[in-house]
Amino acid sequence: MKRRILVVRTDRVGDVVMITPVIRELRRKYPDSFIATLTNPNSADVLINNPHLNEAITDDMSRKSFYNVVSKLRQLRFTDGLLVMPTERAAYQMFLGGVKNRIGVGRKLFEVITMMKSVSRNKYIPLRHEADYCMDLARAVGAEPESLIPEIFVTEDERERGASLLRESGSDPGKQKIFVHTGSGGSSRNWSEGKYIQLIMEIIRLHPDKEIILTAKEMSDEFMSSSVKSGGGRVIDVSGRSKRLRDLIQMISCAQLLIAGSTGPLHIASALGKKTIGLYCHRNMNCAKHWGALGPAAVNLEVSKDFCDANCSGDKEICNFEEGISIQSVLDSI
Fold first, then answer.
1. How far apart (Å, rounded) are the C-alpha atoms in residues 40 and 312?
2. CA dist., res. 259 & res. 274, Å (int)
3. Is this structure's pTM higher than 0.90?
């Protein structure tokens, strides 16, 4: 009997990027299997054109969508369901949807109620990369991974559309493009906009053949106008061009480099094989060892342990991330 495998991760964009190696390694192990994902509609854009995936199911978290997903799962008759992060709603959807072999993480009450098998993250000791923790569920159904590197697939037509969106925003096709994503959505430590402006001005001064592409929708009006004005036509705001996540993915596919904190766009760029510079604090749940970009050309800059011990609180909730990574270290990495 052919396996019919469902991989579930309904949280943030960067988290969904981390299941792309799982999908690839499951396909390598079971080439004739049917593999599907369950994500939220926005994050599903990460999975478009993935050759290892048969179907992408989405859940918009509405009451109606709950039962639509259950019906869809019943229709597709899954033999295995991998709940990569413990999510109560998805656990019940898998149970009611008739997924036979259900595997989750940890032992939450809803996992016990739905009689779900489990793998453990062992309280993150020893600490491993998030992609490796995700892969534990693939290992639980027999897959032995060859690589943890994530991947996103963009067609030539999509890449041209990304270039077109950049041109329409005022980008010069003849200049190399450094994307700077200043937002984090509160998911990780980050620099202030003032420090990002200093970095942008130094890049403009030192690299006359390059332009800066700003992507974060969280940018303040003051930051955006100051950056664009000071950049002399070489700082381009494209934040309003992304009507959906796939638009941003298409534009990033045209980048030479992306600089950001640990956030979705950084992991998107890495999965596209782009050069990246990521900024990380030393806290276990946010550090580069756990969330570093895994692409072939990734540089992960992390606040040192000595700086963290001297300048941040013992529980790491009070963090002096702003001063922990210097502008010069980013410039040197460029």
1. 35
2. 11
3. yes
Write out the two tokens for 281.
Answer: 């604090």
Kindly give the confidence (pLDDT) of every residue in the chain, 334 residues in length, as a single tens digit, with 9 standing for 90 and above: 799 999 999 999 999 999 999 999 999 999 999 999 999 999 999 999 999 999 999 999 999 999 999 999 999 999 999 999 999 999 999 999 999 999 999 999 999 999 999 999 999 999 999 999 999 999 999 999 999 999 999 999 999 999 999 999 999 999 999 999 999 877 788 999 999 999 999 999 999 999 999 999 999 999 999 998 888 899 999 999 999 999 999 999 999 999 999 999 999 999 999 999 999 999 988 999 999 999 889 999 999 999 998 888 877 677 889 999 999 999 999 9
Whether 52 and 35 have beta carbons less than 8 Å apart is answered as: yes
Return d(Cα 161, Cα 242) in angstroms, integer: 12
CA distance 279 to 261: 5
The ranges of the chain annotated as CATH 3.40.50.2000 are: 4-139, 156-333
CA distance 284 to 302: 11
108 Cβ neighbours under 8 A, 6+ residues apart: 86, 88, 91
Could you tell me the fold of the domain covering 4-139? Rossmann fold (3.40.50)
Edge-to-edge strand list for the sheet holding 275-280: 235-237, 210-214, 176-181, 257-261, 275-280, 298-302
CATH class of 156-333: alpha beta
